[in-house]
Write a structure and sequence with these properties.
Layout (H helix, E strand, L loop, with lengths): L7 E6 L5 E6 L1 H10 L4 E4 L6 E6 L2 E5 L11 H20 L2 E10 L4 E6 L5 H7 L4 E6 L2 E5 L4 E3 L5 E4 L12 E3 L3 E4 L5 E2 L5 E2 L3 E5 L5 E4 L4 H7 L5
Parallel strand pairs: 2-4, 7-16, 8-14
Antiparallel strand pairs: 1-2, 1-3, 4-5, 6-7, 6-8, 6-9, 9-10, 10-15, 11-13, 12-13, 16-17
């Protein structure tokens, strides 16, 4: 691994399984190690999956799938990178990505809330923080069609600024111009590949209305909210 002004190459993924190899400035690895849970980081020199370029304080990424536009704000770029890490792992593992919120409430029940991008899933998490014990996802879950099981990604809670009604906002966050990543231990984020299966399912409409769904409709909702890549 090279350190200094040049890029470094590292991998992250499962301990004895699938890895994603990234070439980037050192700050990217340091940031990922701070904000994502349960991913194993290793020095690496094989074929690159994601290449990250910094030009005049602007970051962009390249992969087989995309060439992203340069980002002026660092956390906007980290958001792009986390999405690409999730998609790349999904491609390599043959797991699907599902748009949803998943958490364990204070009554030890697992709740799954399906919702589109921008429907208010993360805001729902913040408003109900006192009722939440463990967080499996605030936006995306991994899903195995073969095992009919969900798995967490270990990503932090992400909300758009301004953030209201979050009591730990001053000390447990990373703040960007438009985004905020919440790292609070009070909303415990489950580690990468933690198994999840819902006791109750809900759907969040685009106008932020929450409606309970019959658990028998779970398969239908999974396919409806599956992310294409």
């Amino acid at each position: 691994m090279e350190v200094g002004n040049s890029n470094i190459t590292f991998s992250l993924g499962e301990k004895d399984g699938i890895k994603i190899t990234i070439e980037s400035p050192l700050i990217i690895q340091e940031t990922l190690q701070k904000i994502i849970k349960g991913w194993v980081f290793e020095e690496s020199k094989p074929k690159i999956d994601i290449f990250i370029k910094k030009t005049d304080k602007r970051y962009s990424l390249q992969s087989k799938r995309i060439n992203s536009k340069p980002r002026d704000d660092f956390l906007d770029f980290i958001n792009d990178l986390l999405n690409e890490i999730a998609i790349t792992f999904g491609q390599k593992s043959n797991l699907k990505l599902i748009h949803c919120v998943a958490y364990e409430n204070i009554h030890k029940k697992n709740i799954l809330v399906f919702g589109r991008h921008g429907s208010g899933k993360s805001s729902y998490m913040i408003k109900n923080q006192d009722k939440i014990l463990n967080v499996f996802s605030d936006d995306i879950l991994l899903f195995s069609k073969k095992k009919l099981s969900f798995y967490s990604l270990g990503f932090p809670i992400r909300v758009r600024r301004p953030v209201k009604n979050f009591k730990f906002i001053k000390t447990n966050t990373l703040l960007g111009e438009r985004l905020c990543y919440i790292l609070s231990k009070d909303l415990f984020i489950k580690e990468f590949k933690t198994l999840f299966f819902p006791d109750y399912i809900f759907e969040m409409s685009n106008d932020h209305q929450l409606k309970e769904q019959n658990i028998l409709n779970l398969d239908k909702k999974i396919h409806e909210y599956m992310i294409s890549f």
